[in-house]
Every structure is written in structure tokens, then in C-alpha cells.
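COURSE: Structural Biology Practicum
ASSIGNMENT: Worksheet 4, Part C
STUDENT ID: 0417
INSTRUCTIONS: Below are two proteins. For each, the amino acid sequence is given first, followed by its C-alpha cell string. Answer the questions at the end about the second protein only.

PROTEIN I
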Amino acid sequence: MGVLTSPRSSTRFRDLPKDQQIGGYPRPGQLSGNVDELELDSEGRCVILEFTAFVLLGVYSPANRDQSRNDFRLGFFDALDVRIRNLAMMGKRVILTGDLNVIRSEKDSTNVAEGLHKEGLSLDDWISMPSRRIFNHLIYEGMVLGNRDEGREVPILWDLCRLFHPEREGMNTCWDTKRNTRPANNGSRIDYVLCSNELKTWFTHANIQEGLMGSDHCPVYAVMATTVMVDGRSVALQDLMNPPGMFSDGNRVRDWSHKDTLSLSAKLIPEFDRRRSIRDMLFKRPERIASALQQNDLANEKGDNVPEVSKDPEASDKLIEADIKLPPIIPSAADIAGRLGKRTKSTSNGDGLKAKPVKPAPGQKTLKGFFKPLAVASEAASAQTKRTQDADADGSQSSAMSSIATLSNMANLAESADNVKVFDPIEAKESWSKLLSKRVPPRCEHDEPCISLLTKKPGVNCGMLSGAMGGMLNTLE
């Protein structure tokens, strides 16, 4: 709809100058008006990019799950149809792709007639449902019953998968995972790659990848030719897909520059601006490094001389690495406090002000700490803390010296705790052996060994232990 704004701007896309907008935004009176324009854009269901060759729309249409979303779903399809038609009227080529959540015909779903029979509906009623009717108006060879709607007299887009596989059945792209209908290919085709009539000859193949697992959908793809026809002449596709002057006859002439950055590039998003490497996203940059790099950027803009170290990205990364504190080999007092599950109690200094408490380090430092018994260390640490607090109350020693003593003793406790035996491997092996070994049949009241009974009935329980029978009783039978 174009009512949102670009990063770092308060101007809506549709209000930008003509040379900075994609265009084709719905005009007053073109939409039904049942849904607000801002509401249609608020869910981020459509991303539109303009290349030199065409305008690409990536769409995730609302699903038809309940009646509460009917108005929004129809409003979305209505706005999508109007936007594509407006772009076509401007002379722009259009490619529409994504999960459109609509089935175009009976051939594109499994057992449609059976499902309609259960619901008491006819095929004409199903094909004329509002969202399906709008979609079939938009595509070539779409089934539209009766007269075409006003403003939708001419189709705009080709269904590429159906164009290359006109009679193929079972070309489903989505299946119900709860009922596990994918092995039987009981699903529907709701994912598409559609293109305007001018782009029809640009594609050499289109298909689905039904064997690629990992989702309830499967990928859909279309292959473009390396050389295409534009206005009666053969042009390399790379010349059309890239900014002017970057490629000539399919050969690169120049590299990318900041002037070629797309309007939706991550560099224009404040969260990713001025980042030097992926490491910046994982670690908090020290203040001195951040300020130095910021001054470096300002100096670059002014054309001033910049030190060589700040120009080198690897050098700045090394400085960042130097500021990242590695966990100590010997656990600190904060680490011990974190293991004990308690916060260290703050002590007061000579002025009566409370000192800043030591924060426990996040997580354990070694795997051994997970198995290590902390009862001894806990009791000793509690006793030492109590003695320190008593000493502070009596004024026998300063709070600063007691804090140092506490930290030193807790570090010694941590070092001694490392010498505690974690577990006995022989004992552990015997425990696992007892757990995983074959169960020994119990003895009956006559002190006779029972006989194990195994399930012989075919099925998932075949061969499993079903019970035991006393030896004396089994002998009498």
C-alpha cells in the first residue's frame, strides 16, 4: 500500500518523489475500503523490490483459517490485484512469488470433489469463492464463471509451473503435518511463481521440489535464460538485473559501490549500520573501540587523515578480541556464589556506604562443575561468610580487608573443590549395566525361579516381557 516509511525517514513510500518510489500504489476508489490501508501493511506480508528488469513481489498471503480474518484476507487479495495491475499499466514487468494460500483449480488439490460432497457444496460454489475468484482474474487461463469483474477484464500474470506442466496432477506444495499427509501426497498447490506476459519467454523451466523435506511446504522455482529478448533484441540477463554500467554483454565492467545500495539493504537499517564483522553482533563492542571507529567514519567523510590501524578492519577486530575477557581457569568468588545459587552479600565500607555486590558469572565454566558435589564448599563458604560478618560487626577489622579475605578464601575453596572426586567410573558402569541389562525374573513364594512370559502376538509388543509365572504353579499345570 506504500503507507509505511523507509528507515530513518518519516515520509511514506507513496509520498516519495517519482524517481525514488516503485509506484503503482492504489488510488482512491480502487479498493473496497473494508480494511484500513495501514492495517494491510502492518503485518509485513509483502516485500517489493524493483530491479532494472522487473518488479519483484514476495508475498505471504493470509490463510483461510476462521471467519474473523475474512475481511483482512479479501482486502489483502484486492490490494495485491490492484497494485499489480497498476504496475502493469505503468509499463513495468512484474514477478509475483510466495505462499499465496489459495488454490486456483480442482487440479491443484487432492480430493476436492470428495471434500465438497461432504460439505454439501458444488464445484461452481468452490471455484467462485471471493479470494479464488480474484486470483483467477489475475492469471492467464484462470477459471472465472460468468462475466469478469469490472477493472479485472484482462489477466496479467502467467502461472509458470502450470505453464511448463499443463496436465500434471498431484503437483502439491503444501501438506497437513498433523495428519502426516505428505507420504500419500494428499495436499494442495498454494505456492507459486507468476510473471507478466512480457517475461513469459524469459523462463526456460519451472517446477516444484517435493522431495526436499524440512517444512510443511516444498520449494517452488523457475529458471531464467542467460540471454533474453527485449524490444526485439537479444540482451544478457546480467545487464538487465544489475545497475546500469555494471555489466556489458554479460561481462562485469565495474564493482558495486555505495550508490548501488538497494533501498531495503541491511546497511540502511540502524541496527546493522557501521558494523565491521559478524563478531560485532555476538559481542558488545567496547566503548573505546566504538568511539574510535565512529571518529574514523567521521574523518573518512571529511577526508581527513586516518591512522592505519583504524583503517584496517582486521586490526579493529583484534582490538575487540583483546577487550573480550575470557573465563578464568580457577573459578572466581562470583562463580562459586553462582554455583551455590546465592548472591554475595554486599559489605559496607568505613563511610557507611554499601559496596557494589559482586555479580555471579553466567553459567558454569566446565562440565565438571555440573557433576561436582558442592555441599562441602557450601558449608565452608557459609561459615566463612558468617565469620566475616561477625568481624565487621565487632569492628575487629576493616570491611575492605574482610572482603579481600572472603574472596581469597572462596577462591581457595574453589581450588580445593576441583580436587573432590566427581564420580567413580566403575560404579557408574555397574549402575548403567544394572539399568540396561536383562531383567532377572523374581522368585515365587516357594522360592522357585519364575518363568518369563513373552508376547507372541504380532505387533509392536511382540517379543516383549508380558509377565512372570511362579515355577511351582507352572509345574503343577
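PROTEIN II
(use this one for the questions)
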Amino acid sequence: MLENFLLGLNTVMDPSVFVYAVVGVIIGQLIGVLPGIGAITAISLLLPVTFHLDATTSIIMLAGIYYGSQYGGSIASILLNLPGTPSSVVTCLDGYPMAQKGQAGKALFITATSSFVGSCIGVGIVIMAAIPMSIFALKFGAPEYASLVFLGLLAATMIATGSQIRSLAMVALGIFFGLIGSDISSGAYRFVLIPEMADGISLVSLAMGLFGLGEVIKNIGQKKRRAIDVKITLKDILPSRAEAKGLVGPLLRGGGSGSFFGALPGTGAAIASFMAYAIEKRVSKTPEKFGKGALAGLSGPEAANNAAAQTSFIPTLTLGVPGDAVMALMIGALILNGVIPGPNLMTNEPALFWGVIASFLIGNIILFAINLPLIRFWVMLIRIPYNKLYPIVILMISAGVYSHRNSVVDVIMTLMFGVLGYVLRRYRFEAAPVLLGFVLGPMLEENFRRTMLLYGGDFTVFLTRPICAVFTGLAALIIAFSIFSTVQKGKANRSV
């Protein structure tokens, strides 16, 4: 493995390749900062450029755009409550409250560090376990995905800071939004009011509306529209020794869980970040601090989504199975250059395979080196007074949403979701579970229906298949723990 990795380093450090690796991560960083654009748009636009490059250079540049966008997406989430990418939605939960308290610099430093550490964990796992993890991923069929997604939906109830019943209601609302559009099996329309809704609701519209525009509407009526006082001295940016020590566990847990979910086709960085947040909140001794600026709630998910960004290449390169639309574009770029991804890629194209893996490490070092000096610059954004900042934010939201699917209806839907986001805040409902329900609901429906068709409606399949049994058992434990904690709270309230 070491010899192969050194081959990859030699490939990526070639000046003609290295330049494109740097260009890729810088473009990805900038694209991630711009809300709603996303890696898929940038890669789609730059796909024709790969016609003039060899396969190795092309995939290294496109990969740099992908994981560079993971870094950039967290910046707008922390400073403006605008998730630049779906995986950075969770960053809003604790990153934005830190910015509101004048700790934007510290939040950005922790984010950059967590992203770098998570990426290194992901790279290490790819180097050591690409083949075993790809074999394990092949064991996942419809029953395993259905039970995993169900577990994820239950975990979503742990994300909210308030009542679990309210959180469940928000998950159900997200599932409902995810069902709008054409049925995946029959093609029949469901809850489609106008033809433009036939393709379903855009995740970008939902995220931008609930978080970004909802925050604008919330603050627009405030009489006092002044900028937040932010400290950006080195002492204020760096976490204390005790805080740094407390981040070791979230970093390792986030990097490990993110690597696992990233290697599973169809899951990806967004689900990895949500699951990491749920894990950190569950293991924390102070779960009441989550959603109010908890460092573990920022560090764990950031490590997870960047680790997942690296390991998502495992099924793409070793199996030829794309985990999401971005990975599908990666496969398209390889095929356009005459390279067929699959089990033989590692032996037929060792320089390409290990060059891409080595580029992850080089690219993340470049991103880390770029991000640290820029913290002061990014923090200056939050010093702009609200009445000058918010028109720019609304323009960015509108441009990002429209560019995603070139749809005016999506922009109108974003406005509607912005009003909904404001109403949810007004009545103390959490918006994050809505996003997870929206992402996971259609996945649960698809895999559950497929399971029932394959196994003739036999529900015992979720107990007889080993991986399913583990996920089902964990789900049962979560339900039992939730009931127990609710009963205990009730007894404590009655005794008071």
C-alpha cells in the first residue's frame, strides 16, 4: 500500500497535474461559499474542459472541486446561516449561533481544522481499506438500506434541542415534502399542484428557504439592524486547551462514521454529517448546549462530511457504482477519457487510482493552508450591517436557487419555505429534522417497497439478515431509550 501511495504522490506532484489539483480545490472552495451553486453545477460546467486533459488530470481536478466545496460550504453556513452545500446544513445548527455570539473566527478555525482531520482520516481509510470496504458495501441490498435509513430518521429526533415529539413532527413534514412529485415506480403524480412540481421539490430551495431566507425574515423586522461585534485576534480564534482536548473524541467519531457512510453508495456526505451530529448529541454530557454553539456539534459533523467526501470515491472507482449525482459525473468524466471504472481499475490504471487518492491528501493540505489566513477576511463579512448585508444575501439565494435547475418556480418555492422557516422559528420548531426527513424519506420509501417486492411482503427479513438485524436492534434501542427518558422527565416534573 505504501509503494502504491508513493506512486500516487509522484503522479500528483508532477507540475502539469499539480496545477490542476490546485485549481480544482480553489474553484471548489469558491463554489462552496456561494450558496446553492454546489459541486455538481461546477463539475457539469467544467466537464468539457476534461476533453483536453488526460484521465488522471481530469479526475484529480474534478475531485478537488468536490471536496473543496465541502470546505467552502461551511463558511456561508457559519457567517450567514446559508448552507452552501447540503452537507453543510448541520454546520448552521451550532456554527451560526457561535457567529451570533461573536465567535465566528473560532468557529471557522474549528471548522477548517475538523475538515482537515476528517479528510485525513478518510484518506487513511481509503488507502488501507478500499477493497474490504467496497466488498462490504456490496452486501448492502434494499433491506439493509431501508433499515439504515429508518435508523437515520430516528436519529433525526436527537438533532433537535427541544421536544422529541416536535422533532418527529418535523421529520414527518420533511418526508411529506420528499414525496411531492412523480412516484418512482408508477410515475403517477403525488401532491403536484402545478406541472413544474412534477420533478419534486429542490433540496436547494428547501435548505435556502428554511435556513437562509427564514433568518432574513426573522431579522428584517428588528429595529436594531447593526453588525455583530466580532473579535478576530489570534487568542479569540484559537480554542482553549480544554476545548481542544474535548474535540478529540468528536473528530475521531466524526471521521470514522463519515468514512463508513461515505463508502455506502447512495448515502454520502449529507447523511454522514446528520448522523455524526446525532451521535455527538447522544454521547455528550451537556446535550442542552447543542444548537446554541456547542463545539462538538460543529466539529463532529464537519469531520464526518469531509471524511465521507473522500471515501465516497471507493464505490465509484472500485465498483463503478456512483453514490450520488456528483460521483455519476466523475464516472462520466472517466468514460469520456476511455477509462472504465470497476474492480480492474486499480491494476489497469494504478497511476490514476493512486494519483486520485494521493491528491486528496495534497488538496486538503492546500485547502487548510488557504483557509487559515482567510479567516480574518471571512469574519469581516459579518461586520456588514444587516440592512446592507441582507439584500446581497437575498440576491445570492435567488441566483443560487435559479442556477440549480433554471426554474423560476424554485425561487418562488424558496420564498414560501422562507416564510415557513420564520414560522417554525417563531413557534420554536427545529428546521434541521425537516431536511433529514426530506433527504431520507424517498430513500426509505424506495428501498422498503423494493424489499417488500423481493421478499413477498415478509417483514421478518429485517430480523433474519445480519446487517438489518443490527440496524433494527439499534432503532429499537433508540425508541426504548426515548420512551424511558420521557417517562423519567414526566416523573421528575410531577415530583417538582
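ANSWER KEY EXCERPT:
Q1: The beta strands are 181-182, 189-190.
Q2: The chain has one domain: 2-141+201-438.
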